[in-house]
Amino acid sequence: MTSLLGPDTRCSRSRIRVRRFAGSARHVAQLDSPIRVAHLTDLHVGRITPRSVQERAVELTNEARPDLVAITGDFVCHSQSYLDFLEYIVSGFSAPVVAVLGNHDHWAGADEVRRSLARAGAEVLENSSTVITLNGCRLQVLGLGDSYTGYADIKRTLQGIRTDLPSLGLSHIAEEADHFWRGGVPLVLSGHTHGGQVTLASLHEIAMGKVGGHRYIHGLYGRRSFNGGFDGAVYVGAGIGASVMPLRMGERGAREVALFDLGIDPATIPEHHDEQKALPGRPPSSRKRAKRMLRVYRQQAFRMRTASLRGYASSRNWSI
Ligand SMILES: [Fe+2]
Questions:
Q1: Distance 12 CA to ligand 1 centre (A)
Q2: Cα(33) to centroid(ligand 1), Å
Q3: What is d(CA 124, CA 118) in angstroms, rounded to the nearest whole number?
Q4: What are the CB-based long-range contacts (under 8 Å, 24+) for 2-6?
Q5: How far apart are CA 7 and CA 227, in angstroms?
Q6: Please, which of 94, 170, 177, 253 could form a disulfide with 188 given CB 3.0 to 4.6 Å?
Q7: Per residue in 267-277, pLDDT tens?
Q8: If you measure from the C-alpha of residue 103 to the centroid of ligand 1, how many angstroms do you get, rounded to a whole number?
Q9: What DSSP assignment string belongs to 6-73?
């Protein structure tokens, strides 16, 4: 195994890559000392992703000695059956944890996921921001609600933003990054795509780009230089887990922990890859957006019906 601080580290047991990047030029200007942020996404605790993989992700993250851990949603798969394990995993990080929720968290039960994360000591940001002091420097972290399921409110998220402070945006869906950039946030961390999972023969670009309409699929996009305008960058993490298909093939589809050294000039460290150009993308239609929101309410209604049936059955000593 190469050095953890190298640009690309493979862990043979769980096949998690650790990749390192610098922050934006604005972070260099605003930070007196560097802040290391470990970015993980799409843990998807549950049957599909082995527990050993989740535990190894925590180990690798802690070995990198980050000042902050940022997790960009999809903590669960389809149920609340693994929330105790989620709490155990998230409480295992040695650095403070900030997070946003993803579409799977809303489908499975956002309140319950939120409570589990709170018990684990994580701060969940939903269209809100927080200022954390790390290494003697203040970092403003802004977290957008999940736009896939209709919970994003960028106006509320950016309300009261301190442009004099170094800032970092979190959004499950990377396509929201442009809004952050216009609001003065130079770097956004995201997830959702799992890097396409199968990246051989550019299959991920066909599946996630042409079919799925994503502008950003995996890795670093945009610009970290600062020319006084709306320049910005977004990183899409490949994630740790999966919710449907466990298969991951190809270099860019491997599970990963990404380290961002804010306050370090990108030109001074080896990085896994350069800033990439966004794909054309295709925003979802309003019908599609409505269908996605409806799914959350359907799932909620299903859970309530099941809970009330269980209550009725137990009041009569029936087993179901
Ligand atoms: Fe996901």
A1: 23
A2: 33
A3: 7
A4: 4/60, 4/63, 4/64, 5/64, 6/270
A5: 27
A6: 177
A7: 999 999 999 99
A8: 8
A9: SSEEEETTTTEEEEEEE--HHHHHH-SS-EEEEEE----BSSSS-HHHHHHHHHHHHHT--SEEEEES
Q: Is the pLDDT of residue 10 over 70?
A: no
Distance, CA 188 to ligand 1 centroid (Å)? 17
Q: How far apart are CA 92 and CA 96, in angstroms?
A: 10
Q: How far is the CA of 243 from the centre of ligand 1 (A)?
A: 6
Q: How far does the centroid of ligand 1 lie from the alpha carbon of residue 180, in Å?
A: 21
In sequence order, what are the beta bridge partners of 307?
A: none
How many other β-carbons are positioned within 10 Å of the β-carbon of residue 79? Answer: 15
Q: Which CATH superfamily is domain 8-283 in?
A: Metallo-dependent phosphatases (3.60.21.10)
Side chain identity at residue 47, one-letter code: R
Query: Distance, CA 267 to ligand 1 centroid (Å)?
Result: 32
pLDDT in tens, 115-155: 999 999 999 999 999 999 998 999 999 999 999 999 999 99
